[in-house]
Amino acid sequence: MTSAPLKGADLTEVGPLADGTGTAQSVRPSRPRRRGRGAPYWFLVPTLTLFAAFTVVPIGYAIWLSLHRVQVKGIGLGKGARQQVWNGIGNYTDVLNDSEFGHSVLRAFGYGLIVIPTMLGLALLFALMLDTPKARSAPFARLMIFLPYAVPGIIAALMWGFLYLPDVSPFYYLLDKFGLPQPDLFDGGNLYLSFANIAVWGGTGFNMIVIYTALRAIPPDIYEAARIDGASDLKIALRIKIPIVMPSLVLTFFFSVIATLQVFTEPMTLKPLTNGLPSSWSPLMAIYDKAFLQSDIYGASATAVVLALATFVLSFTLLRISDRYTREDRA
After folding, report:
1. Dihedral through CA 253, CA 116, CA 102, CA 264, nearest 10?
2. CA separation (Å) from 191 to 180, 196, 277, 279?
3. CB–CB of 316/77 below 8 Å?
4. Residues 6+ apart with CB under 8 A from 120
5. Which residue among 30, 144, 168, 190 has its CA within the 20 to 30 Å range from the CA of 273?
6. Could you report the per-residue pLDDT of 265-303, keeping only the tens digit for each?
7. Quick one: which of 118, 116, 97, 98 has its CA closest to 108?
8. Rounded CA separation 253/329 (Å)
9. Neighbours of 207 (CB within 10 A)
10. CA dihedral (212, 216, 219, 224) positive or negative
11. Is the dihedral of CA 154, 304, 302, 69 positive or negative?
């Protein structure tokens, strides 16, 4: 009785048996085919090409520019009067000694101290309210809260800018009718509130959707067990929902910190409406001013690199701190 050869095996005769009744066969498994293994990498080629062309190359060129400067000969006229020469870390030294850039960073942090707690607090509150069983018209409410995020930033800034102007704003008209004080929202510390209002109005909806999605992923059995134990909706929110969605809160917090350091649209759009807003109010405005108004592309590149490094270091530090506390809580 002979056994059937193994499926997919490579059978090789090695000679007759000792009794001369047959031949022995050695069974060697065939090697798996390697054809088509590189196909997934070919699908990545377009993405990697675009990423390199529009991200890696511009970053590298900005770093290269930040290490150079223009050397002017004579009065700077004629061919060869302006030459690009190596400057080393000279541009970075100028950035660190630039008081205007330091003030712009401080203003961005002050702006963030208003925006981030208010925006994330409202987003969490709205998400918890929409996740309650008693919430009615939840889809419509989600749409209304999220809708401001769909409005382009420059359009939102222009809309609120005209609402801040006393001559055209209906709010100032109502304040005047009721004899109430009319604050100047384009002066001094009120600028922070004006910009923060636009950011909170536009960003709360996005953060609310992120937190609400995390809440919907929680198994309902946990809520049922808590209600059987006599927990109210408030206790469920404070002791179950918020701790579980804490990773989503951390994620939205990091996004908000990065957006704060990169604030540009609101102050740049409202700048023509007021005379009290400096050209370097925020870090990105300082970079724009240096690059396009002062024609110092080399100093602007160094400032952009410093801002990028500061954002990376801050984000990395916050992530490490968050990860450490998360591990301690799990332990």
Report:
1. 90
2. 20, 8, 8, 14
3. no
4. 207, 249, 252, 253, 256
5. 144
6. 999 999 988 887 888 999 999 999 999 999 899 999 999
7. 116
8. 19
9. 26
10. positive
11. negative
DSSP bridge pairs for 86: 68
- Chain CA centroid to CA 191, Å: 24
> Tokens for 267?
């102050």
Give the ranges where the chain is alpha helix by DSSP (H).
Answer: 39-51, 57-66, 90-96, 99-130, 138-150, 153-164, 170-177, 190-216, 220-228, 233-236, 242-244, 246-261, 265-270, 283-288, 297-330
Question: For residue 113, what pLDDT is reported?
Answer: 95
Question: Which one-letter DSSP state was computed for residue 53?
Answer: I
Which residues contact residue 38 at a Cβ distance below 8 angstroms, ignoring those fewer than 6 apart? none
Token representation of residue 157: 């800034």
- Which amino acid belongs to residue 326? T
Q: Is the whole-model pTM more than 0.70? A: yes
Counting every residue written for the chain, the total comes to 331
d(CA 108, CA 97): 18
| Cross-strand partners of 39 | none
**CA-to-CA distance for 68 and 81, rounded, in angstroms?**
16
